[in-house]
Amino acid sequence: MAATILLILILAALSAGSYGASPERFRHRLRLPQIVVPKSYKLFLKPDLENSSFSGSVEVKLRIVSPTHYVVMNAAELQIRSDAVNYTAKGGSKVLQPVRSWNFPEDEIHVLEFHQKLPKGTGVLAIGHFTGLLGNNRTGFYRSKYDVNGTESYMAVTQFEPTYARRCFPCWDEPALKATFQVTLEVPSHLMALSNMPSLNEKHDGYMKTVSFQETPVMSSYLVAVVIGLFDHVEDQTSNDIIVRVYTPVGKATDGIFGLNVGVRSLKIYQRFFNIAYPLPKLDMVGIPEFRYGAMENFGLITFNSSLLYVTPESANLSKHEAADIIAHELSHQWCGNLVTMEWWTDVWLNEGFASWLSVYAVDKIFPEWDVWTQFARETVSYGLLIDALPSFSHPIERSMASYIKTYAWSSATIHDLWKALEISSGKPVGRVMSKWTKQQGFPALSADVSSDNISLKLKQMPFGSGGTSRLWVIPVTVACNSYDAYHQFLLEQPEKLVKLKDLAGCSCTEVACPWIKINVNRTGFYRVRYSTNLMTRLQSAAAAKKFLSKADEFGILDDLRAFNGTPPASQPGKRSSPRV
User: Fold this and answer.
1) Strands 109-118 and 68-74: what pairing?
2) What radius of gyration, in Å, describes the C-alpha atoms of the chain?
3) CATH number for region 29-228
4) 45, 187, 452, 480: least surrounded by Cβ within 10 Å?
5) Residues 432, 434, 440, 445: is their CA dihedral positive or negative?
6) φ/ψ of residue 486, rounded to 5
7) Domain 29-228 matches domain 444-565 at the CATH topology level
8) Any idea what DSSP says for residue 2?
């Protein structure tokens, strides 16, 4: 009996990929099986704004990695007409139709079963008709209210990050499964239709028109974008002929001038930073009144919450700061996120972290009078940014990121790929340092004191706040003594360390006085410092006498004191408060 059961189990295992096997094995998985992957999409969409619905069709060029009876894709809240689905292998004359199909709403997948195995190689899967609802939940393909000359109207807009493209069309909705997209829209003739690429042609038929767009480069499904509505716009062009537009509400084109200026100048800065040209022929920015996030970095068509994009002559400085910051943030994603994409969503923090750093970099060059680096240093601990955790990082980061983007352009990468690029360019053990920071919660604090004979600097690390003392980090420590002309840097890997002050130029006491000693210079490291009474007295004296302490260090000392005393962080004028994607 046992032998019979074993034989049945073996046969079941061997037939797992065979015709008639249960599709249940595709359920309850985090990711799609990689037997079938997309190469290109031809997507047609026809929204019905009055009835809050849409219809569409899609042809997907597929690569069959190994022969299979099954095609598994993502689909959610769509009605797919099964009799309008077929597959044709490259070079094959026979059109294969699925014999069965299953829709699993909980798993957001759609499974097709074919009687004949799809051969290894390429082919085209045609889904001739599907429908969905233009909802108001601000995800997928949805309707947003907006004002047109005092009249309430509706626009159609997409929001696909992280996993909402599947609510608009059947697709392989994972960041690493990149493909090209050729989008066609059928819309009312009086409306404007926007997508990632410039329009290829328009065909009018009475009250409707069909707009076809150029094919995109390879990109992830979450970056596909469509906006349909009535707008005015302002336009400019970069020195390398990239057309930049900001679309505004009708009659308010001037509200887009500030954003247009920031956009054009940010493109110039990033092209120089990455040493790679912006890869699309145009960049559109448009504000959406009903929007889920602060902004979305769709390739070539960035969507914003309207309140964060448009700036009027009456707007306060804070609004200008927020607009500049979020525009620069989203434009940086065109390289770091779109051109090179994280392999899976667990690394999305990396895209966001670099975009936050890069937005400060760009805004500082556009508006140097804003002193945004000081603000960035103030916010570093509060916002959890790890990007500048290595000493002297600002210069190596340009070389590192340019190499990283060039190596992985048009594909996906993991966090380890980035650490490797940073190590090569900086000559520092980035992977060893960052593994500790990314694999445990919280961040460290250092206690700092000098020995009674003023010979040694005593450092001790511990987790900041609660959580015990067992966790250790590899901490990039920087130390300045009486001057910023030269400062010292080393890694603290052990719980405690004694550093001879004579080995740190300028840090030893003289017959006249003992120098101020500042740890975590300009607050570029992601840790707090608790100074002994001796060291704090020296710093307070230096601050009172205005002896060279930078604004970032003055704020850092006060902020650390408040944190250790349980006081909320200091008020930060002009602090960024807008959510960003």
Assistant:
1) antiparallel
2) 28
3) 2.60.40.1730
4) 452
5) positive
6) -145, 135
7) yes
8) H
Q: Give the closest residue to 158 by CA, choosing from 226, 211, 216.
A: 226
How far apart CA 438 and CA 276 sit, in angstroms, is: 29
* DSSP 8-class letter at 422: H
**CB under 8 Å to 384, separation ≥6 — which residues?**
none
CA-nearest of 525, 479, 530 to 506 is 479
Identify the CATH class of 444-565: mainly beta
If you average pLDDT over residues 415-419, what whole number do you get? 88
Catalytic residues: 330
Give every strand in the sheet of 295-296, ordered side by side: 232-237, 243-248, 282-288, 301-305, 295-296
Per residue in 340-359, pLDDT (tens digit) is: 999 999 888 878 888 998 99
**Rounded to the nearest 5 degrees, what angle is found at the Cα of 80, between the Cα atoms of 78 and 86?**
145
Query: What is the Cα–Cα distance from 160 to 139, expressed in whole angstroms?
Result: 7
**pLDDT for res 571:** 43
Q: From the annotation, which residues make up the binding site for Zn(2+)?
A: 329, 333, 352
**269-303 as b/e: b if 16+ CB within 10 A:** bbbebbebebbbebbbbbbbebbbbbbbbbbbbbb
Q: What is the pLDDT of residues 174-220, one digit of tens each?
A: 999 999 999 999 999 999 999 999 999 999 999 999 999 999 999 99
Q: CB of 556 within 8 A of CB of 571? A: no
Helix then strand then coil, in percent of the chain rounded to 5, is: 30, 35, 35
* In contact, 296 and 223? CB cutoff 8 Å: no
Name 476's bridge partners: 491
- Rounded Cα distance between 390 and 489, Å, is 10
Amino acid letter for position 408:
Y
Per the structure block, which two tokens stand in for 109?
């997948």
Which residues are documented as binding site?
Answer: 329, 333, 352
CB 69 within 8 A of CB 101: no
pLDDT of 67 strictly over 50: yes
Strands (E), 149-238: 151-159, 180-188, 192-195, 199-205, 208-213, 226-229, 232-237
Query: Which residues have a Cβ under 8 Å from the Cβ of 445 and sit 6 or more positions away?
Result: 461, 462, 463, 464, 527, 528, 529, 530, 564
Arch. (CATH architecture) of 230-335: Orthogonal Bundle (1.10)
Sequence-distant (6+) residues with CB within 8 A of 104 are 23, 26, 27, 110, 111
Indicate the domain borders of the chain.
29-228, 230-335, 341-437, 444-565
Give the C-alpha separation, 574 to 374, whole Å: 11
What is the tens place of the pLDDT at every residue in 13-63? 334 445 667 889 999 999 999 999 999 999 999 999 999 999 999 999 999
